[in-house]
Structure formats: structure tokens, C-alpha cells
Amino acid sequence: MTPMIDMVFQLIIFFMLLINFEEGEQNEEIQLPGSTLARPPEAPPDFPIVLHVTKEGKVLYSGRPGQPVEIDAMGLFMRMEREQSRSQGGDDALVIIRADAVALAGKVQELIKVCQDPKNGGFEQFVLRVKEEVVE
């Protein structure tokens, strides 16, 4: 019985180490565009803010789960995110934008402008997520 328990414990540890912790920032409604230039981040950001841009040009935001938000209304949420990042002792929040493959690029630019606006927190660091395509 002891070897079996030992083996089960080792399997549990093995699968825990293989878990991809980046799954938390994904949304099944968003189909990312592909890119051969994409590469995974070197280290996880200290204070990530993940924004999902839908096909319709609305934003899915973790502060309002399941409720799409208009881009114009994101200023209030970004101000709250800036206050939260400062209260946690950091000013280097990273805005991660996951836009659907068919979302208009103008909507993504509009969202970035809202985030960069000084009265909305003045965010400076942005990352656009894409699906990595491996070239063989």
C-alpha cells in the first residue's frame, strides 16, 4: 500500500508542475490572431491588467465578469486599477490586451488611448496577446 500512495503522490506533484498558470487570463469567447513572431513572456508581470476585446468591439474586464463594457466607459475601471496597483506598492502595471482576430484594429487603438489618458491612470506598458504559430 505504501508504494502505491508514494506513486500517487509523485503523480500529483508531476501534474501540478505541468499546469499552465496563464490559463487564468484566457477567455473562450476571444479567438486570438496567429503570429509567427510571437514568443512567450520571460517572466510573469507584477501587476497584470487583462482586457479582452470582443468581435463587437466591447471589452470584457475581470472587474465586471460576464458583462461587456463599452470602450468609452473603461476610463473609470482603469482609474480603479491604477489606484489598486499603487496601493500594492507598484507603479509598473502592465495592460495585456487580448483582441479577437476579427476585432477592428481601431477599437484596440481606442482602448489603448483610453488607458494612456492621464486622467484614467496614464498607463504606459502594453502587451498585445496573439496565438503563437510554430514554423517548421
Lay out the secondary structure.
Elements: H1 2-18, E1 34-35, E2 48-53, E3 59-61, H2 74-87, E4 94-99, H3 105-116, E5 125-128, E6 131-132
Parallel strand pairs: 1-6, 2-4, 4-5
Antiparallel strand pairs: 2-3
Question: Would you kindly provide a brief summary of this structure?
Answer:
The protein is 32% helix and 17% strand. It has 136 residues and is of the alpha/beta class.
Describe what this molecule looks like in 3D.
The protein is α/β, with parallel strands linked by helices. The protein has one domain (27-132). Helices cover 32% and strands 17% of the residues. The protein has three helices and six strands; from the N terminus they run αβββαβαββ. It has a four-stranded mixed beta sheet, with helices on one face. A two-stranded parallel ribbon has the order 1-6. The radius of gyration is 18 Å and the shape is extended.
